[in-house]
Specification:
Blueprint lengths: L1 H13 L1 H4 L5 H7 L3 H13 L1 E2 L4 E2 L19 E5 L1 H8 L5 H18 L21 E10 L2 E9 L16 H13 L3 H12 L13 H6 L5 H6 L1
Parallel strand pairs: 3-5
Antiparallel strand pairs: 1-2, 4-5
Helix pairs in contact: 1-4, 1-5, 5-6, 7-8
Length: 229
């Protein structure tokens, strides 16, 4: 999945020094990836890049994306969250491509607004109440004779009436809030959310965060490991 490579690169290469939570310093020092791992992750992102769209595809998976009337995942391009982070993650490795991705995503931000969730990872504060998401199809057409889709996972208040009142049961939301409150200089709240997310770690299997999402579909979501770092 693309997002694990994005989080590996972005949190290990460009943003770890800025956002690593002081309570987690020991854990990061033990698991920090090698330069070779970072290079390989960045190259993987590059291999998914479509210069016509200025975006990186969801993955190499040929299975369908979850949107109505879908195309395969390898022809699906998520403006938020994947490419919002990818532009920053690739800066130290492929700056020209990174700039193209960031410029493309910025156009979607101008047209459709911020996602109000994922941007906290790049230093933008978000609401302390997280709305449920809405998948928005902003492009469905053909590039070089192949059908592609560009999608946005947006969490603006008018997108969905639901609020994650159970945000403490999702590891990723816990860590988004950790970063958000840290930027707000509310260290007590930041520590609370970090510790809450930490409790969701599966100490038995040690494979990931067994949060509400994992309990619902039986799968771990690897990008949460990057957020936790």
């Amino acid at each position: 999945m693309l997002t694990i490579f994005v989080t590996l690169v972005i949190f290990s290469s460009t943003f770890t020094l800025a956002y690593v939570h002081p309570l987690n310093t020991h854990q990061v020092s033990e698991s920090y990836p090698s330069q070779n791992q970072l290079d390989n992750a960045a190259f993987y992102l590059l291999s998914m890049y479509n210069p016509k769209l200025g975006l990186v595809a969801n993955s190499e998976d040929e299975g369908p994306n979850p949107i109505k009337d879908p195309v395969p995942c390898n022809r699906t391009y998520w403006g938020y969250s994947d490419n919002l982070w990818t532009g920053y993650a690739l800066r130290p490795f492929y700056p020209e491509i990174a700039g193209n991705v960031t410029d493309t995503v910025q156009r979607y931000i101008v047209e459709s607004g911020w996602p109000m969730l994922f941007e906290v990872a790049i230093g933008e504060q978000i609401p302390t109440l997280i709305h449920d998401g809405k998948d928005i199809k902003v492009y469905d057409g053909y590039v070089n004779g192949t059908r592609v889709q560009v999608l946005l996972d947006r969490h603006q208040p008018h997108d969905h009436p639901g609020i994650f009142l159970d945000a403490d049961e999702y590891a990723d939301l816990c860590f988004y809030m950790t970063i958000n409150y840290w930027m707000m200089e509310d260290i007590t709240a930041s520590e609370h959310w970090f510790r809450t997310g930490e409790t969701l770690w599966n100490h038995t299997t040690k494979k990931g965060f067994y949060d509400k999402a994992a309990r619902q579909d039986g799968r771990y979501q690897n990008f949460k490991l990057g957020l936790a770092s």
